[in-house]
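Researcher: Structure prediction, please.
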Amino acid sequence: MKELEGNPGKRPLPRNEPRPQLPVKRPRGMGRGQRAYWDQHAPELERLRILTGLDVPAMRLMAEHYTFALEAARILGEEGLIVEGRDGPKKHPAWQALRDASGMYLRLAAEFGMTPSARTRLQLPPEVEQLSLADLLFEAANGGEASE
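Model: Predicted structure follows.
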């Protein structure tokens, strides 16, 4: 996570920190819209090493809030922004649902670097270099100096 957020303390980051290698599976029980959202965004987040198995609940919530916001927007599009209440015209209840779901979605999306401002703060780790056994042995024998 430090690699993504930066290193304000300027302390050396561990180089051999374990990194999850298992593919992240979409959780069961998601609706069609949520599955579509997951299938569209999860592979890219996983490729960037932002999404891990630990993030599945947050990613699922993000997909849920996204689909809630879309549904509220659909309802508003069909029924309009104003409905008739007991005391006369009032704001449609779906308006507040749209605001709440959109706000929560944006907060979660920022956690995954999925908003423009969040991306400016992300520092993606460099691609992991695959060294051969000979290079690893040479590096170990020469105090960390890799062969060219």
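Model: The chain has a mean pLDDT of 84.
Researcher: Thanks, that helps.
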